[in-house]
Amino acid sequence: MKYTKGQVWLKIKGQTATIGLTSLGASLAKEIVHIDLPEDEEEFAAGKPIATYETIKSVNEITVPIGCKIVHVNEKLLDNPSTINTDCYGDGWIVRIELLDKEKENKELLDVKEAVKHYKKILDKEKERYAGIYD
């Protein structure tokens, strides 16, 4: 698995990958109430949003770190987007893609050790932000 700084995971197999929101991303989003998915065969440049999801308080984008073509979308999320919150690495996957620029993969994506360091900083900021609320 590879990760982005935007709390997205990618499970890459050859020239294809499955993409989803990490458990940290799903946790910070709280309850996802709606998702807009791309169309099959749609192409996206690296850094472009491929999906948006809504929570009770915000609308967020999921960007793709690598140029890609959508192979398949998880249509089950249209009826039950909160699956991302409850099973983000399983049934809550978002899209399957064909990688169009695999060379960029190693430069833009984090391995698990890098992701843990980055996500820890995010968690520390959240803890600071809410310090004292429950005292």
Distance between the termini: 38 Å
The ordered string of helix (H) and strand (E) elements is: EEEHEEEEEHHEHH
Mean of all residue-level pLDDT scores: 89
Low-confidence stretches: none
Under CATH, the homologous superfamily reads RNA polymerase II/Efflux pump adaptor protein, barrel-sandwich hybrid domain
CATH topology: OB fold (Dihydrolipoamide Acetyltransferase, E2P)
> Which strand order does the major sheet show?
1-2-3-9-8-5
| Total of domains | 1
Q: Main sheet, how many strands, which sense, barrel?
A: 6 strands, antiparallel
Rg, nearest Å: 15 Å
Number of helices: 5
Overall geometry:
globular
Beta-strand segment tally: 9
- Helical content stands at 25-40%
Q: Which secondary-structure class do the elements indicate?
A: alpha+beta
Q: Note the beta-strand portion.
A: 25-35%
User: What's the CATH class label?
Assistant: Mainly Beta
Query: What is the second-level CATH architecture?
Result: Beta Barrel
